[in-house]
Design a protein that fits this description.
Blueprint: H1 10-21, H2 25-38, E1 43-49, E2 55-60, H3 67-72, H4 100-106, E3 109-115, E4 122-128, E5 131-138, E6 143-149, H5 156-161, H6 165-182, E7 187-192, E8 195-200, H7 205-213, E9 221-227, E10 231-238, E11 250-254, E12 257-259, H8 262-271, E13 284-290, E14 295-296, E15 307-308, H9 311-329
The protein binds adenosine-5'-diphosphate (ADP) and magnesium ion (MG).
Residues 31, 34-35, 95, 100 line the site of magnesium ion.
Length: 339
């Protein structure tokens, strides 16, 4: 009998892992934006071409990387964000798996320029299908600029699976909007070919919302805030009269991570009961802050679901917060005492 089991070469292992992390250009954008935020960026620029199929580029003014770290960042399970298993239960960064760059570089042509504060020179590194093609010193601004070119250039089956440029572009914009909404104090812009789609200056959440959705939202927002020992809720909801027939402009962030939850959505809609027709959809951008030990974020990177220890309390607090905000919004007719 001969042995038949062998370890896969890194390049193949990375490509398999990439299938999990990078489904489409928008998933690469998500990872790059999260890395920029984790690096403490105050300004983030996004450039995309052809629905992100030929280019997704993110430029940040964050802390940058050393020469060696720039090389290391493309290794699988290489991260600066956790050290031991205890750290897993108090994650304060987006990243911690050390998988994103390795996965992206397994299925694209990646060029990264980076310079740490205080370093005179930065470094530029080219990685293609997990293979480092070259790395050399380079003059570049402080921070990191990363270009992801020709996604799935070496995996035709996956490339063919991508949707039209317009559809992929919609996913990119959606991802950009989610991140931009959750970090109003960070400046973001997004350029498609040579056209600037968003220019979002750092500011308050209300300004970010109008920056993302348009000035017409200015008069439509109702502030929502509730603090309990368990959970804090804050953000904005739309007035019942501005509710739309379609779902979409509805955002939950838990500890600043975008999540989807039909259960929590129901809590919000429930609070509108009697104020709008039941098939209407209210606008909301709501931030839930909860002790990280009471949730499980250690789920799949592309998943937007989350597990709460005590889902029912979250539901109750959220519903009460929205109800209260709406109560404060309802205009009470003033009595005319002059009669
Ligand atoms: P993770 O974010 O899970 O640690 P990544 O593959 O996304 O894994 O990144 C690997 C490492 O590369 C990060 O831990 C970080 O140290 C570094 N890195 C990635 N992107 C940036 C960036 N834009 N600025 C500074 N460091 C970065
Ligand atoms: Mg990351």
């Amino acid at each position: 009998m001969s042995d038949i089991i062998h370890l896969l070469p890194d390049a193949i292992a990375n490509q398999i892992a990439a299938g999990e992390v990078v489904q489409r250009p928008a998933s690469a954008l998500k990872e790059l934006l999260e890395n920029a935020i984790d690096a403490g960026a105050t300004k983030v620029q996004v450039l995309v071409k052809d629905g992100g199929k030929t280019l997704v580029q993110v430029i940040d003014d964050g802390k940058g990387m050393s020469l060696t770290d720039a090389r290391m960042s493309f290794e699988r399970h290489a991260t600066s964000k956790i050290k031991n298993s205890e750290d897993l239960f108090s994650i304060r960064t987006f990243g911690f798996r050390g998988e994103a760059l390795a996965s992206i570089a397994a299925v694209a042509q990646v060029e990264m320029r980076t310079r740490q504060k205080g370093d005179e020179l930065g470094t530029v590194i080219h990685v293609e299908g997990s293979e480092v093609k070259k790395q050399e010193p380079a003059a570049c601004p402080e921070g990191t600029c990363i270009l992801v070119k020709n996604l799935f250039f070496n995996v035709p089956a996956r490339r063919n699976f991508l949707k039209s440029n317009a559809v992929e572009m919609r996913h990119l914009v959606e991802e950009f909007q989610r991140v931009a909404l959750s970090y109003p104090h960070i400046g973001f812009n997004m350029i498609q070919h040579d056209m600037e789609l968003f220019q979002l200056l750092p500011g308050k959440l209300s300004q970010r919302i109008t920056g993302v959705f348009g000035k017409s939202y200015q008069g439509q927002l109702v502030a929502c805030q509730e603090e309990t020992p368990h959970l804090n809720v804050k953000g904005y909801i739309g007035k019942p009269e501005n509710a739309k027939k379609t779902r979409g402009e509805q955002y939950f962030f838990v500890n600043n991570r975008f999540i989807k939850s039909n259960y929590l959505h129901h809590a919000v809609v429930h609070a509108y009961e009697g104020l709008m027709q039941s098939e209407m959809q209210p606008f909301y951008v709501l931030f839930l802050e909860i002790d990280p030990t009471h949730i499980d974020i250690n789920v799949h990177p592309t998943k937007t679901e989350i597990k709460f220890d005590d889902e029912r309390t979250v539901y109750a607090v959220l519903r009460s917060a929205v109800k209260q905000a709406l109560g404060a919004h309802v205009v009470v007719p003033t009595l005319d005492f002059s009669l």
